[in-house]
Amino acid sequence: MLYNEPDPNTGALISTWPVVSWLPQGVENPVVLAARDKIYVIGGDLGPDPAPGVISSAVYFTHVNADHTLGPWVNDREYYLPNPVYMHGGGVWNGRLYIAGGYTSPSGGHTAGVFSAEVAGDAVVSATATYLVPSDIPEGAYTAMASADDLAGNHGSATSYFALDFTPPVSTPTVMGPGRFFGESGKYYVASGGLLQITVEDPVRGVGGGAATGVKERWLKDGEEPYAQTSGPFRLSDGEHALKFYGIDNVGNVELDTKTASVVFDSTAPGTAALALAGATTGSLTLSWLVTGDDGASGRILEGEARIQYGAGAVDFATASAQVILPIVGAEPGTLMSHTLTELATGTVYHIALALRDTAGNWSGTSELGAQTTSYALSADGIAGLASSVPDAGVSVVPAEPALPAYQVAHAQGLDPITPFYELSPSPVAFDPPATISFVFDAAGVDLLGAAIYRFDPAGPSWSTAPILNQTITPLENNKVMIAGTLLSASLYGVFFRTPDIDAPRLALTSPASGARGVLRFFEGSIAVYGSAFDEHLSSWRLESGALLISSGGTQAEGLLGLWDTAGLSGPQTLNLTASDEAGNAAALAADLLIGDPARTLVLGSKKAFNHPHAIAAKAGKLYVADTNADRIALFGEDGAFRGSYGNKTTVEPYFDKPKAVDADEAGNIYVADTQHHRIVKLSAEGGFLFEIGDVQTGKNGKKSFRSGKENGQFKHPSGIALGPGGSIYVSDTGNRRIQVFNAQGVFQRVFTIPDTDQTLDPDAEDKDEFAPIGLDIDAAGNVLIADSKGRRAIVFSQDGQLKQTLSGMFKRPEGIAVSPDGSCILVSDRKLDKVFKFDFKGAQTLEFGEHGEIKDGKPLPSELVFNKPIGLALSDSGTLYVADRNNERIQGFGLPVEQILIASGETGGNTYRAASTGEVAKAVETKFARSTLLKETGGTIIREDKAAVVIPPDALPEDSELTISQTSEDPKRREILTKNRLAEASEAVEFGPDGTKFTTPVTITLPYLAQGVTEDKLKIHYWNPEKKEWEALESTLDKENKLISAKTTHFSLYQVLAPSAGLRAAADPEAAFVFRELYVFPNPARAGAKPTIHLAVGKADQVIIRIYNVAGQQVHEASLDGAPQVIDIQYAYEYAWDGRIPSGVYFYTVEAKKSGQGSIRRTGKMAVVR
Predict the structure, then answer these.
(1) pLDDT per position as a tens digit, 690-708
(2) Are the C-beta atoms of 115 and 126 separated by less than 8 Å?
C-alpha cells in the first residue's frame, strides 16, 4: 500500500510516495473503505495479471495511527464475506460497511448481492446481515433499505444506494442546425451556421445517492491530432475531416469500439444561377438555368435542390405555396436545367425566384424575373389562333376574294390560298416576346409540302414566309392538320400552297473562287468577295469564315458579297457561303485559300542550261521555254526533266533569232515569236516546221531574208503570243504597238492598237523598243490581256478589241501576264521591281510577292522569294505559276506548299533533284526518270532506277515509240479524291508516257512501294482516270520480299500504289457537346431507287428516334439509333438510310435526340422520293 497526501500550503502532491505498509497478500480490484480510524480492504482478484485468477472473500483491516502510520493488518476469516467477489462496489454509511455487486468467478458471472457489517470499536461486530440481489433485475440505479432489532428491543434502520451498470455508452455524431447526413457518400455535411455534436448515450439510466448512471466523458480525435475531451457542439475548419470518438459512463464503462465519421464542414454557398425564360404559352412558362458550383462556381453538387417560388405578387421563399422543389444530383457546374410551370392563368405576369441548395445545405442567392403567360385570341371561323403577350390582341377574318389587292399579289407570286386571310390587331404592334400564330384546317386534297404561312407586306407589295419563324406542321385527328409559326408584328397573314420547291439555292464564289488551285488560292489584305446566291424563293444567305460573319442577306445576291479583312491572319483559311430558301432547302459552298505568299515548288535551270529565258508556256504537263539568247525553244516535263529543244544556228528550219515568246495548242503544236526575224513560226509537236507569218523572202539559193514592216501580217520585234478561241493566234507586235490577230491557218483577221499614255520612257531602259505590248494571254471568254511595258500598265480588251479595263499605278516595267481560264485572276510580272502582282477580275490587287535577289549555281536557295528581271508567266492546269526569271537563268514555279522543292539543272542529260527546304544545296536524291525507244515488233522492258518498270510484249505497241517513266507534279484534285475515298499512299505517283498510249495486248507495269501505316495485303495499283476524275484500282500482284507490286494495263496513264486508309484524318477533334448543328436528307429527292439518308449532327446523344409521316399525317416508318455516332466532316453525326419499298411521294420526318440530364433536341424536315 502506498500513501500520499497534498501539500497543506499549495495543494500539490508531494514529490515522493513512501511505502507505509504491505498487505498480507497481493490483490487486484479490491474495495478499500475507511471507517472511523480503520482502513478495510475487501475482496478482489488474487490471480496473475492480466487474466482473473482466484477470487477472494477476505477482509483485511488495520488501525491508522496519529502519525499516519498503519498498525498490523488483521486477517480473520470470521469477518470474511459470505461469497468471493471482485470489481465490486462499496461504501460506508452511519457506521456500517456496504459491499454490492461485482463478479463472482473468472468467467465473468456476476452477483446482485449486497453485504453489510457494523463497525464497532476496534473490531467489526459479528452480527452481519446479507441480502443477495436477484440476478435477473435489470441494470440501473437502486436504493437499498435495511433495519434490525437487538434483544433489548432496540430498533435501527439504514438506507444505501447502488448501481448495476455493465453496458458501455454509445456515441454518435449529430449535425445541429444547417447540415445533413448524405447516405450515398456516407458523409456528414455541416453548412454555414451549423455545428457538430458528439452525442453519447448511456443505455443504463437512473440516479441514486452517489450511485449515478449516465455519461461522464466524451473524447474526440481529428485526423492525426491527439484525442481531446469535448463537451458541447463545435465547428472545425472548412473541408473534410476524418473524426474518431468514444464515450465513458459514470461507473467507468468505456465504449468498446471507437467510432469514426467523415465530416465535411462547408460554409460556402453555391453561386447564384441566372434564371431565364425559355418559352411561354397561354397557361405555362418554361424556365431554364445553368447549375452553379457547390462552392460558388466550382465543385459538383452531389445531392442538392433547386427551389422555385412563384406567384402573381412578390416572391417570398418563406411561403410554402406556389413552390417547386427539384432535386439536383451529381450536377457539374454549367449543367442545363429547365422546368415548366403549368396551370397558370392566361395573360398574367408572374414573379418568379430561384435559389439552389448544395449538398451541405447552403443556399445560393436568389435569381428573380418577371414573365407573362400569353393571351389567346381565336378567329370567328375557328381556324386561326394567336397566342401573344398583348392582352387585347385580336384575329379578324378577311375573305380571300380575287378583287382584294393582297389576293392579286399572291396570284402573281404563284400562291394559292388554303385558308382565308387574317388581320391581326392592334396594328402596328411589335410582339416581344414573339407571338405564335396557328391555323387548323382540313388537309384533304392539300399537298402539305407546298403549304406555309405567309405575311403580307403592303410596301412591296409581296407575300413572304421570311417573317414567320419556326414553322411546323402537326398532323391531327380526322384528317386535320395544324400549321404554326412565330412572328414579331401584326399584319395580314394566310396559309398558301406553292408548288413544292426541292431545289437548293444556286451558289457561286467567283473570287476567291471555289475549287481554285495552286497560286490562285493565295491572298493578302482586304479581300473583296464576289459571288452569287440565287433561288426563286431565297430566304437568306451568309458569308462566313470560321466564326466570323462577313456579310449576310435575305434577297438574291450577285457581285460583291462582302469585304473580308484578313489582317492578323495567315496560312490556310476557308470561306463559306451558305443559303436556304423558303422551302427549307439549303446549300453550301466553300473556297479554300491561304493568306500570305505562295511556296516555291520548282527551280529549273542554270547558267549552262539557259541564256536569258524570256517566256514560258505550260500545257498538258509540259513546259515550253523561249531560251532567247540561245535561239531555241526548250521542252521540259513539269518534273523538270529535259525533253528536247528546237532551233539551231543553221539556216535549216526551224531556226530562230532571239525568240521571246512561245505557246502551244492541245495537239502539242508549238507557236514561236521569232523576235529578231520579225515573224511567227508554227512547229509540230515533234519540232517540224509547219508555217510562218511575217515578211519573209526566200532567195534563189533557198536562203530566207526577214524584214520588219507595218502592214497587216508584218511585224516589228513581236514579243508576245497567245492562242485564242478556235485556235486563233494573237501576237504582240511590240515595235508597232499593236495586237494582230490571225486564224488557226495564219490568215490575218484584224488588228487593234494600244492607246498612248502620258507615261515617259524609263531612262534606264536597255531597249527602248521593248517599252510596248509584250506579255499576252487570252481567257476562256476571249478577252485579251496585255502587259504594256511602255505604258506601265496591264490592259484588258474584249475579243473584238474594245478596251475593258486598265491596271496601273503599281508597275514600273510590266512585261509578263497570265490569266486564269475563268478570268477571275490576273497575274503580272514587273522586271524592274522584281515582283509578281496578283489581281481579281475587277482589278483589285490581292497579292504581291518577290524581291530582288540572285540564285547561283551550286549555292543554297535563298529562303526569300527572289527574282532577277522576271518576264514571262504561265499558269498550269494545276494552278502552278511558272516565271521566266531571265537574269537568274531559271524557271521558277510557285504554288501550294510542298515537302520538297524540285530542283532541276535543265541541261541536256542533266539531273533533277529535290531539296527538302529553301536554303538547301541541290544535292539531294536524284529524280527518277527513264526513257527508251522500243520497236513494235520486239517490244521490250524499261526499268527505272527505283525498279518502276514496264514490260511490253512483241506487237503490243501500235508503232515504234519512245516511252518514258517519270514523276509528276502534285495535283490538288487528285489529292482531294484520295482524301474523299479514304485512300492512303504507299508510293509516289508515277507517269508512264506518252500519256494515253494504247496497246493491242496488255502490258505489265511494276511499282515499288512502302507499306507504312497501311495493310500490305490490301495494296493495289490504281490509275488516274482523267475523264471520271477518279482513282480506279487494278488487279495487282505483290512481291513482298522485294516490295514490288505489278498489274496489267492496256494504256498509259498516271499510276500509284494505294490502300484503304486506317481512318479519316480530321483537322481537329470532333466536338462532343450535345447541341444541334445540322440536319438534312441526301439525296433529296431520292430518285431511281436511291435510299434517302437522314443526316443529323448533335454531338453525342444517348438515343436518336426518327419518325416518318406521309402527307396525310400517318406515320409510315420509325427507327431508333442507340449506337455511337460517326465522325463525318470533323463532327459527330448520325446517319440513317431509309430502305425498303418506298412509294413515290412527299414525306415529313421528325428526329428526336435524347441525352440523359440534358433533355432532348427535336427537329423536323421534309423529303421527296421519286421512283
Answers:
(1) 999 999 988 877 788 899 9
(2) no
